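User: Okay, second chain of the day. Same drill as before: sequence in, structure tokens out.
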Amino acid sequence: MRVLVQLLPKYHRGQECIFLHFSEASLHHFVKRIRGVRWSRTHRSWYMTLSKSAYEGIKERLKAVAQIDATALKNYLQERKAYLTLNGSNQLSKQRANIILQYPLNETNRIAFEKFQQLIQPKGYSQSTLRSYSNEFHCLLRLLNQVSVSSLNKEHIQAYLLWLVKNKGYSEVHVHMAVNAIKFYFEQVEGRGREFYDLPRPRKPSKLPDILAEEEVVSLLNTTSNLKHKALLMTAYSAGLRVSELVKLKVLDIDSKRMTIHVREGKGKKDRMVPLSKRLLEVLREYFKQYRPKEYLFEGEEGGAYSSRSAQDVLHEAKRKTGIYKRGSIHSLRHSYATHL
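Assistant: Same drill. Structure tokens below.
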């Protein structure tokens, strides 16, 4: 009788892996001969980096001596595929991978999640909204365990939303995001009628954004020696851009003849034109000569648009060097821009 080998997904050493679990000691002789296999002292198990070739290599090497059980791996890959399709990536973050590993969806709810993704992607929502809706719907699904999401009624959903407010501390904006995601599934995927939920609204604190003084903005820019970073921060401030608008700017969006910047698909998918200052144009020209971006105005090391996270990191590092301790992201430059007009 062949030995049973379970292929289990795990996140290990910063990457997704396939772990081989078996109890028969004699099998070690065969497993250690698999190309690319490694031994984990932490888990006391053999493992390989997650890939199709690794899976095929395991099957080929062990087919004569072991029975392969890849049920857990296949379930993980199916749920993983839905997230990767949404994010346009080929690798999950550690946080997302661990969520899928710790709270696997039952088959019915996994199919519901896939249908949700298939229908919401063509709707024209921003990438940020797509991720938020997807995360909120997945949050509901992973709490259901073996209960089918299709069996839930209005009372169930209302109780869940109240739980989010009372137990998870959801803000009013966050609750609305969860409501919209859940309504999308029941109304668009399942075809139910429109539903409305009567919820006590969490008190929203009235906070003013931290505004940088003009002198602080000048100091911030003067302290930034990296030309690319200076051009990025100056563009964000001078044009009053959101971070999503900033990283999506293309070289051709800068119109030096009309002295305008074409902001495409801003909030609400709307385009707009903003003034291009002479000083910003000078800096952008100097930046272009040195960095030669091909398509996007600010590109990553391997091409393509600069990530929003990287843009935020540029600002935080500049604030640290300048000794500015006010909270705020790239959006705070937008608020400062509006205040300084």
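The two ends are 79 Å apart (CA to CA).

User: Thanks, on to the next one.
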